[in-house]
Amino acid sequence: MHIRPIAHKDLDTLYEIAVESGPGFTSLMPDRDALARKIEHSIDSFHRDISHPGDEHYLFVLEDELTGAIMGTTGIEASTGHTRPLHHFRRNSVVRHSRDLGLRRSIETLTRCNHYTGYTEICSLYLRPQFRRANAGKLLSRVRFVFMATHPERFSDTVIAEMRGVSDASGQSPFWNWIKTHFVDMEFAEATRLVGAGYTDFINELMPLHPLYTSLMSKEARSVIGQVHPQTRPALHILKAEGFQYKGLVDLFDAGPTLECAMANIRSVRDSASYKVATHSRHFYKHAELPSRAPLLVANTKISDFRATVVDDAQAWLNPERLTLPASVADLLGLSDSGIVRALPLDGQHRRKPDNLEQPQPEIHYAR
Predict the structure, then answer these.
(1) In this predicted model, what pLDDT tens digit does every residue of 258-278 receive, in sequence order?
(2) Residues 6 or more apart from 308 whose CB is under 8 A from it?
């Protein structure tokens, strides 16, 4: 399996993924025209020659090289808020105190805000159920950080992740059901469809601007604030291990938490490093005594021709200066001897080596 940028030929599968993922997965909605535009925008983003982040959106797919099947997706929004505001509720505590009566009470509130404008956002991570296998989820999640570490000029200094909140099998969100009753007479699926299509005017027109007292909400709505969808828990665990933290901002629609981390503090950014590549035939690996190593996420340093995969301890030989790969893996990544690769041990047991290699200049591509 390997990661590559999405292509026009992936539209049908991307639509299937959007249907499979269900309501609440707003970055991929089952609208073929919108998805076609998203693919086109991603292709254009990969080909841009830029020095700082703008409205670029990078969408990757995980492909089984044996069958050509698309196993999942993952994406990066370079700088949020360029085309539409990014709305959240901020959780606060308001203290009410009467000195004369000796009464004091702390009350939780939710206040609408646009705190994360200009931040890089990771998004669109979805691994199709029939393709769930060892290291597939890790590859989809961590490849984004390896791409950021290779091309930091394309991204913000802080990265966020909006986690999918709680909803049931029929697409009902307990939090949205309360919002719907009191403010917006619209089904959850329709609200998320509008946001996914880029229409957010109704947020300013209908959603509450003044603080909401959570004590006035239903028990069901309160219980899911800051909680994630059951299928999102593995992704939440991975991001927390990367150093992401919850700072009290939740989604407007399902109250799922938003996590954040300085890019320089993301574990996979810190632990990944550049190596020169050496290649050998399969015959070499049958007879060489190779040290036991963790599975490695290995990626080339290209942009529009970006490729990444996972190699196990029987395929790679990593030393402080060089990464030895089978010729077949090097070919998959578009690499040759003495080419540059970025590698990340997936179990986190190996310390990052000093990154003392000269970094190659990014290839320059122009949009057509």
Answers:
(1) 999 999 999 999 999 898 888
(2) 2, 3, 139, 143, 146, 147, 297, 298, 299, 300, 333
* Element holding 149 (H helix, E strand): helix 136-150
- DSSP character at residue 262: E
Residues in the chain: 368
**Which 3 state secondary structure label does DSSP give 117?**
coil
> Which residues, including other chains, have CB under 8 Å from residue 213's CB and lie 6 or more apart?
107, 108, 109
Compute φ and ψ for 205, nearest 5 degrees.
-80, -35
Instruction: For 280-335, write each residue's pLDDT tens digit.
Output: 655 444 434 444 467 889 999 999 999 999 987 555 666 667 888 888 888 899 98
- Compute how many other C-beta atoms are within 10 angstroms of the C-beta atom of residue 132: 12
Residue type present at position 103: L
What number of other Cβ atoms are within 10 A of residue 220's Cβ?
Answer: 13
Rounded to the nearest 10°, the torsion over CA 62, 63, 69, 70 is 20
Kind and range of the H or E run holding 15: helix 11-21
Query: Of 158, 178, 177, which is closest to residue 78 (Cα–Cα)?
Result: 158
Q: Name the nearest CA neighbour of 352 among 257, 264, 282, 227.
A: 264
Residue 162 near residue 121, CB atoms below 8 Å: yes
DSSP 3-state of 100:
coil
Q: What are the strands, taking DSSP E only, across the chain?
A: 2-5, 57-63, 70-77, 88-98, 103-113, 120-127, 158-162, 212-213, 245-250, 257-262, 273-280, 296-300, 308-311, 317-318, 322-326, 340-345
Share in percent of the chain as helix, strand, coil (round to 5): 30, 25, 40
Q: Are 303 and 46 in contact (CB under 8 A)?
A: yes
Beta bridge partners of 297: 310, 344
Just list the catalytic residues: 229
Q: Which amino acid is at 273?
A: A
Long-range CB contacts (within 8 A, 24+) of 169-175: 171/22, 171/23, 171/24, 173/23, 173/24, 173/224, 173/253, 173/254, 173/255, 174/218, 174/220, 174/221, 174/223, 174/224, 175/221, 175/224, 175/225, 175/253, 175/254, 175/255
- Specify the residue for token string 């299509």: 197
Q: 344: how many CB neighbours lie within 10 A of its CB?
A: 29
